[in-house]
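seq/struct pair 1
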Amino acid sequence: MNDITLRPIETTDAAALAALQSAVFDDYERSDLLSEVIAQERAARSAGLATDVPAPFGLAAYRENTLVGWSQGYRQGKTEFYMLNSGVASTERRKGVYSALVGAILNHATAKGYAKVISRHAASNSAVLIAKMRLGFQVSGFEYSEVYGPLVQLTYIVSETRRRLYRVRSASIRSSAQ
């Protein structure tokens, strides 16, 4: 049933990836003010600042030979993998593509020894929030972004021992017997 093939994102045609990203995010409200802010910040940025992210990793999903999704991220600190962005073509949603991509990212995180995988999502993106929570992610924070508005942070804790610690630390202070 699932005939999705995952390949390193570096092997994906850049124009095809850019077209898919544009299509996936076509409902994102553009902002002239945001574009102006980004341009000003880019112009003011020191040439000495690194533009590359540490330990980038990404996958592209194909059905037959058609690009249908992607996910990419990078190491954050020493023990966290940050899922920067992902997307699936509208015609391929609810067909297991996103779950396959996230599963492969979790396998990568486990193999590389990361303790956590973290992502942030628009609070209104219930499809992704639900999909990730079904895969074992937990809500770990909220923030407000001037770019994206309200965001929900999700965290997947790689080891069962650390997951147990998380459950203990996040439990109610009072025992249920009181």
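seq/struct pair 2
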Amino acid sequence: MTESKVPQPPSREMIRQTLIELLEADTGEKYPDLDEKTNLREGLGLDSVDVVSIVSQVERRFRIRLTHEELQTLVTVGDVLNLLEAKLAAGPESQAA
């Protein structure tokens, strides 16, 4: 049996670019310079439906599951990047809902 190479988790910048792409597709707005301190609701003008939509797209894109508790901690763009980076670095065994 051959050993399969463990894929490297995406870089923070790659996660950030994916998040921008999903935000732009979902809202129709452009986010050329998405600051990590930007508040998701006030700064980006997202309502709870937008946040749920973005999160479900992120889950599908990265093949991860985010818990309700994790979602409640997301306030800024940086919070989203930190959570995704941690989940992706942890590997598939820690991503089950």
